[in-house]
Amino acid sequence: MRKFYIMVFMFLNLLICTNVVYADSNYLAFESLNIASGKLLNDYTSKEYKTYYKNVDKRKFIGWRTYTVNKDIECSYITETLFSYYNNGYSAIEYEYNLDRKTTSKLSLSASGSIGIKTSSTKPTFKNNLDGSLKLSADYQISEEIEESYTVNLDVDAGTQVDLYIYGEGLITNGVAARYFFWVRVNRGGYEAFVVTTQYQRLEKTRI
Question: Which superkingdom, per the lineage (predicted)?
Answer without folding.
Answer: Bacteria
